[in-house]
Design goal:
heterodimer; A: about 375 residues; alpha/beta; five-stranded mixed β-sheet; four-stranded mixed β-sheet; about 35% helix; about 20% strand; B: alpha/beta; Aspartate Aminotransferase, domain 1; two-stranded antiparallel sheet; 15 helices; globular; disordered N terminus
């Protein structure tokens, strides 16, 4: 538990990254909310607690919350100083992963999620208790209660010998300084494994009973079948595009942009300049998938595919792919573009045919 | 307990418990194959009489070798008593359509199906018919089929019907096949796309896909209606047809439906109205009047044959005169004196199933319509809509539930509610609430996947249920939602008094593990060694 998560929110500081912000927040009268939120989550562990072993960080990093929830936890390690830091989060997360936990429940915001990701990668499934200011990642439960309920049901499954399912979910982080200037520019940091039971996850991910995996495969089949010889295909970040690469048998940078041509890799993890030279030298399509729950098609997590690249490719050669579950996660919100070039954004706006499966299209609105 | 029950009014026989508690039977009954005792017999047919054997020889010898078994089938071997006991036990291990206030199976149009119609369907006259009998001996059933077609024509405004499809999806498939044949007959072979909406009956997309079409799905606009501008963006010279449900599964009637038809017609496509569930619009709107070229009914939904959740079903397709040549063969014709099955229809798409229609359900649907008359049909729709809006009023008073898309507006025959707020506040999901309802003798269905409406619950109180029934149902929902706040673990671990408490859905979603036959189960479970 990141004890200072969310401290900047109510006092309008839009985040809690950095000592200076924490000091200012406290000076503005901010009260840390992470502890009570974590207690609310842990209280829901109740029913699953039989036979459940709970490991926590020391003192304010989980131990106090667990005791307040009436639980008797095992404490992992000790604090490095009198103030907790992101390094503490990473250290304890790594120690718990090492200890073989079934689930890493962390309380905080996007920054905490990024710290957990840095520490454990995909070694251990994780689930976020929403306690931070910025909650854009798809790894958080919709509420502390929901996080506790999910963890409890997972514990019950493990105890009953049912193998729980997991899936990869986006970890996004924002540049807080830019965010304070009013620019929302989330960066796709990577993917954490979260419980497959996604109904209670932030970003309103609709349930995906194996169907989403099948839909992803079907999308990949459709995209690959439409590929033309001699044409470059710019594949954006994400698991849907990774499935396209897998179908081709080529490697894929999960959080980066890769290019294939004639079913072979042409360039990996490219930046804007390299992309521009590729798409200017010959015909190209760009294949992208929106960010779940947010709907950004361009300008979030794939800024490499900048306005110059898109103008060179042409709007008719933008292929948007998304599973029906991802579209459902938008809860009626339109898809969004924010390339940094308003005229281009206007060109890309309107109704598009989104590839949702093999031979399946959805008509969906894009708004700038 | 809920305050809802106090205003129920006087209960006729003493104090009625606030909420009914239900306990399902549990027999730990094995699969019938596991009960098999080698050598046990239910029926011993008499041996062939000597005179017949001499005249006919070995009856099996008349069959070609290719259809003769070399090994006996792996059927279970049981005495009659054990068969009866097995199925009687299984019949107790469910909620039962005649036992509960079955308004929770939204989109399925669960209504009371009068027993007298069952008696008609099971009486020897229709039950003992054989489809290969000469038409001179089947004039009665052909007349019922012909008359039912006339009734469905009046209800929909269409020019011709076929009753051949064995189910709703078979009817949609027949419509899609007719659409393909229509375009092909005009030499138009570029039309390979079918347009539908996300809240339409999902069989539309599935059947179009099965028939080889690409499928384009429209999402709702900001008002909760299918997106008309999206439709304009979707139509092209590749558009074969629009397959659309109205009202959609949200219970919202699309008032711009004639604009949808016009846009598709202008692009050269046909329009098929999915009226699988027509319960809210009987006698009020007609597919033909909205400009549709085709429609279909599920006789087992609207027309009470009934929805048996697994069969037998029955579908009926209606078409305009222009599309009538493509109807499946045979059609039932009446020349003023005799009824005949007409197989001589050169443009026909052929057969959707081997014989003409599911006869018992055709009898039930005919009897149901005949018993109500035109005014009765309209009263069915009006009562169903009234019931639905009354129940919606009661349900929306429960904290934590909403009716997204077109919030604040009335619905037609069903509502897709959302428990999203309650789930966020308590961690209890819609599925948990539906399962907890089983402890009070009822249940509900969430929705098709994907869940466009988060934490969904789809309720459809047809014309059959009384105000007291609906009050009881709403009281159960209110109670269960309250429990989600006061004792969430109780709800999350429900049902507590059912045959099966929680099923692991994993295998149902996994092609390597799902098994719809005993043989598939043995193979996939590795029991065959």
């Amino acid at each position: 538990m990141n004890p200072i998560a969310g401290i900047g929110g109510r006092v309008g500081l839009k985040g809690s990254d950095g000592d200076d912000v924490v000091r200012r927040a406290l000076a503005l009268g901010a009260v840390p909310e992470a502890n009570p939120r974590t207690v609310r989550a842990l209280e829901r562990l109740g029913g699953g607690a039989a036979g459940l072993e709970l490991l926590v960080g020391p003192g304010p990093m989980g131990e106090e919350a667990a005791r307040a929830a009436g639980l008797a936890p095992l404490v992992v390690g000790g604090l490095s100083g009198d103030r907790t830091t992101a390094e503490d989060t990473r250290r304890f997360a790594a120690a718990m992963a090492e200890g073989g936990v079934d689930l890493l429940l962390f309380a905080g915001g996007d920054g905490t999620a990024a710290d957990v990701l840095a520490a454990v990668g995909d070694a251990v499934p994780a689930l976020g208790v929403p306690a931070g200011v910025k909650i854009h990642s798809a790894v958080f439960a919709v509420s502390p209660e929901a996080a506790g309920a999910l963890a409890a049901s997972l514990a019950r499954d493990v105890a009953a010998g049912v193998r729980p399912g997991f899936r990869e979910a986006e970890v996004l982080d924002l540049d807080e300084d830019a965010y304070r200037r009013g620019q929302i520019a989330p960066r796709l940091v990577g993917y954490l494994r979260v419980p497959r039971e996604p109904r209670l996850l932030q970003a309103r991910k609709a349930p995906s009973p194996a169907g989403e995996d099948a839909a992803t495969q079907a999308i990949a089949e459709d995209v690959v079948e439409r590929m033309e010889p001699g044409r470059a295909y710019v594949l954006g970040p994400g698991t849907t595009l990774r499935a396209v690469a897998e179908r081709l048998g080529v490697p894929k940078t999960l959080v980066g942009v890769d290019v294939v041509r004639d079913r072979r890799p042409l360039a990996a993890d490219v930046g804007e300049d390299a992309l521009l030279s590729i798409v200017e030298e010959g015909p190209a399509d760009v294949v992208v998938t929106p960010i779940g729950g947010q709907g950004f098609v361009f300008g979030r997590g794939n800024q490499q595919i900048g306005p110059g690249v898109l103008r060179a490719i042409g709007g008719d050669h933008v292929v948007v792919v998304a599973t029906p579950w991802k579209l459902a996660s938008l809860a009626g919100m339109p898809l969004r573009v924010d390339t940094g070039d308003p005229k281009l954004d206007a060109l890309l706006s309107g109704h598009v045919l989104v590839t949702t499966g093999y031979g399946d299209r959805a008509v969906y609105r894009i708004e700038a | 307990m809920s305050g809802d029950v106090a205003d129920r009014g006087a209960w006729p026989i003493g104090a009625k418990p606030p909420l009914r508690r239900f306990h399902q039977a549990r027999w730990d009954e094995p699969v019938i194959f596991e009960l098999s005792q080698p050598g046990a017999r239910g029926v011993l047919p008499p041996a062939v009489e000597p005179g017949i054997r001499e005249a006919v020889g070995d009856p099996a010898a008349a069959l070609p070798a290719s259809v003769r078994r070399t090994t006996p089938p792996g059927l279970p071997e049981l005495a009659q008593l054990h068969v009866v006991r097995h199925y009687a036990r299984l019949s107790q291990e469910n909620l039962g359509v005649d036992l509960n206030v079955d308004v929770g199976q939204g989109t399925c149009t669960m209504k009371y199906s009068p027993k007298v119609n069952d008696q008609l369907a099971r009486s020897p006259k229709p039950a003992d018919l054989h489809p290969l009998q000469d038409a001179s001996t089947t004039q009665g059933i052909l007349e019922i089929m012909w008359r039912l077609e006339q009734l469905l024509k009046a209800i929909s405004g269409m020019d011709r019907f076929t009753l051949q499809p064995g189910a709703g999806s078979a009817a949609i498939y027949a419509n899609v096949a007719m659409i393909r044949a229509y375009h092909a007959s005009r030499g138009d072979d570029t039309r390979d796309e079918v347009i539908t909406t996300i809240f339409s009956h999902p069989s539309n997309a599935a059947c179009a896909k099965t028939a080889g079409f690409r499928v384009i799905t429209l999402y709702p606009d900001a008002d909760g209606y299918p997106d008309l501008d999206g439709l304009r963006a979707a139509v092209s010279e590749r558009t074969a047809a629009l397959l659309i449900t109205n009202p959609e599964d949200t219970g919202i009637f699309n008032p711009k439906i004639d604009d949808f038809v016009r846009v598709v017609h202008e692009a050269g496509g046909l329009c098929a109205y999915d009226q699988a569930n027509a319960n809210g619009i009987l006698g009020i709107t007609r597919a033909r009047d909205a400009g549709f070229d085709l429609c279909h009914f599920n006789l087992h939904k609207t027309f009470s044959t009934p929805h048996a959740c697994g069969g037998p079903a029955a579908g009926a397709c209606g078409v305009t005169e222009e599309l009538a040549p493509f109807l499946p063969i045979p059609t039932v014709e009446h020349d003023g004196a005799r009824y005949v099955l007409d197989h001589d229809r050169p443009s026909s798409i052929g057969k959707i199933r081997p014989w003409y229609g599911v006869t018992p359900n055709i009898v039930r649907a005919y009897a149901w319509i005949a018993s109500l008359g035109a005014e009765g049909l309209r009263e069915v729709a009006e009562t169903a809509v009234l019931n639905n809006n009354y129940l919606m009023h009661r349900v929306l008073q429960i904290p934590g539930v909403s009716a997204p898309y077109a919030e604040g507006r009335r619905r037609i025959e069903q509502v897709r509610y959302s428990w999203e707020r309650l789930a966020a506040e308590t961690g209890v999901r819609s599925e948990d609430l539906g399962l907890r309802a089983a402890d009070f003798g009822t249940h509900y269905w969430t929705s098709h996947h994907p869940w466009v409406v988060p934490e969904p619950m789809t309720l459809e109180p047809t014309e059959s249920y009384s105000m007291a029934d609906l009050d009881e149902y709403a009281a159960i929902l209110r109670h269960v939602a309250e429990e989600a706040r006061t004792d969430p673990d109780l709800v999350r671990s429900a049902p507590h008094a059912s045959t099966v408490h929680r099923a692991d859905h994993g295998p149902l979603d996994d092609p390597d593990r799902w098994a719809v036959t005993w043989r598939a189960y043995r193979r996939k479970a590795g029991l065959d060694g």
